[in-house]
């Protein structure tokens, strides 16, 4: 059993390494294309760009059905056992979920721009361009292809596909700076990035299945049969609800800051949060690598293995968090000044607070997939509901009272609350199924 736990950890870190390499490239490039965009547009128009694209991402996430989770949860067994007809029905269900949620998101996004665009701090003249940008929500969902990469243990391919979006955005913003293009051009660049990601992810996932003999024909209307995936809609909607509330927490805070304090402050808040999240991203990328390994341990009923992997990850995340704080103290304000092209008073405090928010999120990295895998996703959803209901009025009040520092502090408090609420059912569950240490006979 100890060998299996070690193998699981090795695969988790190996797959996380592929994701980190891709995201590190993305993070380095994002510092460049964000700085180029600020230089081309100025801080105020860049703030409008961030508000529009953040709103589009928020609506996409809010309407998105995370189809990779049911694909892993229900598709792993038929995939491993070679039950291809059943696997195909689950796969095409996930494809339809992506298309349905993408179309729904585009409609909701356009309606949201029409109703609330002005109240979120966007000039009236930019409303039509923002509405056109919402059409890109149709191609923001790549859940089924993400699930295929994880089922096939091809995390490297997911990172390679992400490079297509980086290339499009780097080239597009570089040309925009050189040719002195305006806001609408940069909105088009952000939209073309999403289209490039959708095409490369979908094409590579289908190629991976075809080359492995896992699919033959494209049958998107193939329906699930009784017994294929009992409770799949309930599971999908529960994980989607959790994802939606996580999006409200991560994205709508920026929109509230924009509506209350204006586009320039929203740009500072958005970039500061991006720096904090970017510094913590390597550890956050463990979450997608965790799901396949936790599912394997679950199907073997290796509860002590699950406990050991979770505890080891907690210890590693704790050590990593200390290094992150030291790095932010040294370089955080420099990064913010370089990206915004202006010195913002209190920038170092903003970076430290929003990095603290990201570090609290790191504590949830092993907890959320564990609760999902063992059938307690409703606990995560309930925690998100409680935290979101507390966060929205809290961030509004603290931003009104203490401006950007107040908004950042509200994020830290909400993330701490989420961590503590999720820890409770995990401790109780391990106390029931894996108390103390592994018995000697199991270890042997």
From TrEMBL:
The chain crosses the membrane at residues 12-36, 42-62, 99-122, 128-149, 156-178, 184-209, 309-331, 351-374, 381-402, 408-430. It is found in: Cell membrane. The keyword Membrane applies. One of its GO terms (cellular component) is plasma membrane. The keyword Membrane applies. It is a multi-pass membrane protein. This is Inner membrane protein YghQ. It comes from Novacetimonas maltaceti. Keywords: Cell membrane, Membrane, Transmembrane, Transmembrane helix.
């Amino acid at each position: 059993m100890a060998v299996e736990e070690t193998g699981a950890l090795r695969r988790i870190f190996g797959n996380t390494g592929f994701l980190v390499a891709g995201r590190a490239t993305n993070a380095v490039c994002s510092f460049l294309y964000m700085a180029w965009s600020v230089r081309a547009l100025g801080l105020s128009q860049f703030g409008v760009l961030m508000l529009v694209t953040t709103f589009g991402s928020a609506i996409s996430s809010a309407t998105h059905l995370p189809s990779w989770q049911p694909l892993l949860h229900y598709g792993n067994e038929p995939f491993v056992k070679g039950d291809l007809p059943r696997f195909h029905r689950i796969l095409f269900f996930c494809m339809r979920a992506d298309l349905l949620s993408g179309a729904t998101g585009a409609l909701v996004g356009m309606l949201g721009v029409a109703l609330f665009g002005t109240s979120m701090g966007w000039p009236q003249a930019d409303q039509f361009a923002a509405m056109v940008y919402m059409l890109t929500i149709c191609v923001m969902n790549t859940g089924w292809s993400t699930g295929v990469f994880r089922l096939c243990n091809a995390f490297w391919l997911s990172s390679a596909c992400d490079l297509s979006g980086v290339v499009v955005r780097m080239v597009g913003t570089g040309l925009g700076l050189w040719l002195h293009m305006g806001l609408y051009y940069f909105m088009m660049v952000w939209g073309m990035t999403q289209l490039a990601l959708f095409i490369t992810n979908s094409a590579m996932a289908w190629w991976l299945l075809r080359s492995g003999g896992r699919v033959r024909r494209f049958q998107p209307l193939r329906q699930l049969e009784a017994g294929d995936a009992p409770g799949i809609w309930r599971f999908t909607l529960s994980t989607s609800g959790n994802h939606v509330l996580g999006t409200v927490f991560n994205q709508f805070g920026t929109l509230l800051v924009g509506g209350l304090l204006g586009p320039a402050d929203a740009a500072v808040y958005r970039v500061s949060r991006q720096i904090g999240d970017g510094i913590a991203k390597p550890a956050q990328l463990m979450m997608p690598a965790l799901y396949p390994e936790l599912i394997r341990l679950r199907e073997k009923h290796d509860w002590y293995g699950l406990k050991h992997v979770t505890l080891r990850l907690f210890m590693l995340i704790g050590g990593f968090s200390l290094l992150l704080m030291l790095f932010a103290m040294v370089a955080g304000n420099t990064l913010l000044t370089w990206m915004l092209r202006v010195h913002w008073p209190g920038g170092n405090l903003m970076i430290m607070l929003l990095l603290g928010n990201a570090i609290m999120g790191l504590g949830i990295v092993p907890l959320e997939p564990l609760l999902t895998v063992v059938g307690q996703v409703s606990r995560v959803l309930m925690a998100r509901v409680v935290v979101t209901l507390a966060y929205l009025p809290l961030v509004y009040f603290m931003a009104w009272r203490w401006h950007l520092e107040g908004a950042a502090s509200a994020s830290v408090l909400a993330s701490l609350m989420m961590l503590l609420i999720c820890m409770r059912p995990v401790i109780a569950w391990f106390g029931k199924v894996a108390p103390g240490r592994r018995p000697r006979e199991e270890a042997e």
